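Sequence in, structure out.
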Amino acid sequence: MKKVAILLKDGFEELEALSVLDVCRRAGIEGELIGMDSEFVASSHNLIVKADRLYDDEIKDFDAVVIPGGMPGAKNLQKDHRVLELVKMMFEANKIVAAICAGPIVLQAAGALKNKTVTCYPGFEDELTDANYKEALVIKDKNIITGKGPAAGFAFAYEIVEALGIDSEPLKESMQYHYLINH
């Protein structure tokens, strides 16, 4: 079974983290919320979420890592050397490295954006100095997946599922995603 680690620090954007978790689990992927500092993590809107586990070395064996945005969550992840080392290691191992909203600043700090085409929340593109910024909801460039912001949560999650080799179309149908994108 494929495994996805969604890294959490205080100030994360709950829609971006929890939509990925939900879609992964519906797709049969073992998605886990990883508390970097504690079991209970406060979102940017003061929603307290219980992580599935605390960060440990086993996370390095996962198939994908997800960096949610939110402030100050993305900055908190960017300042954590363990996060930067994990992102760099997974990027170099050609595993899926995904970041949404302000999250791509973490990928920039880890050196994973050189010559990559990415998107992010408006205002953070200037911090992505190694990347080619593009206006889009979601962009996949080899093993890097980036999303624009909270409204991109489902599209971002489906892109991760597809990158892990699972057809997301039946899931989109059962979740009635086509109503969202056609209206």
